[in-house]
Structures are given as structure tokens and as C-alpha cells.
Amino acid sequence: MLLFRAVVRLVGLLWMLVLALLGLGVAVYCIDGFISLGSARPDRLLGLTAVRHHVGRFLNQVGLPGPTAALGLLCGLAAILIGLLLLLGTLRSRKERLVVFERDVNGTLAAKPRTLRAMARALAEQAPGATSITRPRLTLSRRGNRGRLKVTALRARTSDPQAVQDAINARLEPISDPFALKLRIRVRLGERGERVQ
Amino acid sequence: MFVTVDGGKRLEGVLCVVTKDGHYEVTLRLICRLVPLRELSEQVKAAVRRTADVSGLPVESVSVHVAELANGEEA
């Protein structure tokens, strides 16, 4: 996600640069209406006439059935996908998500979701009979004051699944109750060679 | 950015905002161990308010954000 955000920022910066250059080109082109710039006109400097010739030929090929049209279609779909991803990255809120424990006039107590997940995992691992805990999943409400925490635990063959589930439930109470998290605990039999507590 | 500059020093993990009426809203970002969060928060808030009272700074609110677990318990 960090890399994606960095790419979005870079693309935004480059896009600004391209727009600025385009604006400059249009401005110079407009000046040409009053003062003839001759060969210094932007389209002549950049050789846009030759570009139009090449692009026009390619566009003609795209319009006809054949491999170029298929390639054009693929490129178009890829461009749409990249555009949607960039839009998503640009429009997505950059505000950090927090799980809110309590909020009043005196202040807020909140935790980062990944920290809460780490806490849940550390607490669940202390439950007797649980051999290991997979990465807990946390789904939050829009305001961050409610959510759902899914925990998957592995148990030893000798452990009772209900007892392990109850133990994990009890261990997670200190964070599930105050953060108003609905717990969903799944217990399954551990594979051979996995850690036993 | 959770950084506040105080007398040329950078206080990382601290965000201090002055409200319209000249009070301070303090937010602290903590790295803590696996401890009861409410108690920890109360202690931190009380310590901040005590220090602010001694310094004569009007504090409106103190917020605590738990950012990470310490001692290899990180996410």
C-alpha cells in the first residue's frame, strides 16, 4: 500500500508537469496568432506532424480486425485499470484509521488496527491448548468505534476445541469489550510439527 | 506527522495543537507493552495534566494513540 501511494504521488507530480508543459505549449501557440513564430512554433519544434502521421496509421490499424486491434484492446483495458487504480489512490482518504476505545471532551484513547491485531494475537497465544494463532483479521466500522475480529487458532489433538475457544474468548476480553469488537474464533486441529504450548 | 518542535527540540510521538481559546490539545503516540490500555491511558493523561499544571499551560484534552507493541510484540 505504501508503494502504491508513492506511485500515485509520483504520477500526480508528473501529471502536473505534463499539464504545465501542455499549457505552456498552448500559450506559445496562441502567441503565434499575433506574432509569427515560424519554425519555433511548438508543434514544429516537437515534430508533431510526423507524430500525427505515425499515430494516424496505428489508429487505422486498430480500427481494422487483426492482431493490432487485439493489442489495442488489451492496452486500452490495461489503461482503464491503471486509471481506476490511480483514481482510487488519489481519492482514497489519507486519514489514518484508528480503533477508538473511548472518546470524550477530555480526549481519546485509540489504537492502530495493526497494533490491536498484534495485541489480539499475543493475548490469544496465551490461551491454554492453543498451539498457534494465525494473523487475526479486523474489520472496522466507518467511525472505528465498532468492529469484528476474526481469530483462527490451532489446537493440539488432546485439547478440547470448545475449551480452547472459551479460553481464547476469555483472553481477548480485555480488548474485545472496550473496543466493542465482535469476536469470531475458529479452532482447528494443528498439523504435525507445529508448536504446542 | 506526530512531531512537535519545542525550543529547537523535536518531540517525536507528540502532537500539540492550540485551540482558538488558547488551550492545548495534546495527542501522544505510544509504543507500549501488553498492558491494560485504559489504566495506561489514565496514567499518561494524569502525568501530562500534572506537568501542564506545573508549567501553567491550559490543556483542553489529552489523547492517547497506541501505535505499536514493544519488545518483539509488534505487528
Give a quick account of the main beta sheet of chain B: strands, pairing sense, barrel closure: 3 strands, mixed
Number of strands of chain B: 5
Backbone structural class of chain A: alpha+beta
Identify low-pLDDT runs of chain B: none
Structure explained in plain terms:
The complex is a heterodimer of chains A (197) and B (75). Chain A is of the alpha+beta class and 197 residues long. Chain A contains 6 helices and 6 strands. Chain A has helices spanning 2-31, 42-45, 48-63, 67-91, 113-125, 161-176; strands at 99-104, 107-111, 130-133, 137-140, 147-155, 181-189. In chain A, a hairpin with a 6-residue loop joins strand 4 and strand 5 (147-155). The longest helix of chain A is centred in the first third of the chain and has 30 residues, at 2-31. The radius of gyration of chain A is 29 Å and the shape is elongated. The mean pLDDT of chain A is 82. With 75 residues, chain B is α+β, with helices and mostly antiparallel strands. Helices cover 25% and strands 44% of the residues of chain B. Chain B contains 1 helix and 5 strands. In chain B, strands 3-4-5 form a 3-stranded mixed beta sheet, covered by helices on one side. Chain B has a two-stranded antiparallel ribbon with strand order 1-2. In chain B, strand 3 and strand 4 form a beta hairpin. The mean pLDDT of chain B is 86. Strand 2 (107-111) of chain A pairs parallel with strand 5 (59-69) of chain B, so a sheet runs across the interface.
